[in-house]
Specification:
Layout lengths: L5 E11 L4 E11 L5 H14 L4 E3 L11 E4 L5 E7 L4 H10 E7 L4 H14 L5 E5 L2 H9 L4 E9 L2 E5 L4 E4 L2 E4 L4
């Protein structure tokens, strides 16, 4: 018997002072049985960090050729491909061929550092790649507060993210390992 996904609802209030983006988003996320609370939190953080009117969560865990999040134009062209975790180099290269910009958000601390060191050399030639890591301690702390229905306020200022949940307030500064070259 196959396990079913668990549905989570996030009400996000995003205030990105760096980009002058202020909006509320209602997200309904299916957490696949193989997905951890930490990965779910990393997906929400990625959404909050890059939030845009055209941003969309996808079913990447079920559809291997899809990003975790993406921003598309009205004609369906992918302008931003966003993956969470530690994708293999082939996946990133393929994404770079399909999108104007690729952003990877690792979140696993030392395992993410080891992943980056193993793929870094191969991915340095991808000019349109950002690799921005979420601090493991902050992701784990936020994962403890995840409930089936969550209301989070995410404030971004000077690159720092402040996430306020019903029971917690967590400050985190994503670590830029590589930024897209122009």
């Amino acid at each position: 018997m196959a396990l079913k996904s668990t549905i989570f609802k996030f009400q996000l209030q995003i205030s990105d002072l760096d980009r002058h983006y202020y909006a509320e988003h209602a997200l309904t996320l299916a957490r696949h049985p193989s997905e951890t609370d930490e990965r779910l939190v990393a997906r929400v953080l990625a959404f909050g960090r890059i939030a845009d009117e055209g941003i969309d969560m996808t079913s990447a865990l079920c559809e291997p050729d899809e990003p975790d999040l993406c921003i598309k134009t009205l004609d369906g062209r992918i302008t931003r491909w966003i993956d969470v975790g530690q994708p293999d180099a082939r996946r990133v290269l393929k994404a770079a061929g399909r999108a104007d910009r690729v952003t990877i958000h690792p979140y696993g601390g030392s395992t993410s550092t080891l992943w980056w060191e193993s793929v870094r050399k191969e991915l340095l030639r991808v000019r349109k790649l950002d690799v921005i890591a979420f601090p493991e301690a902050a992701v784990k702390q936020l994962a403890k507060s995840v409930e089936r229905t969550c209301q989070w306020q995410i404030t971004v200022q000077d690159g720092e993210m402040m996430v306020t949940t019903g029971s917690d307030c967590v400050s985190l500064t994503p670590d830029t390992w590589r930024e897209m070259s122009t």
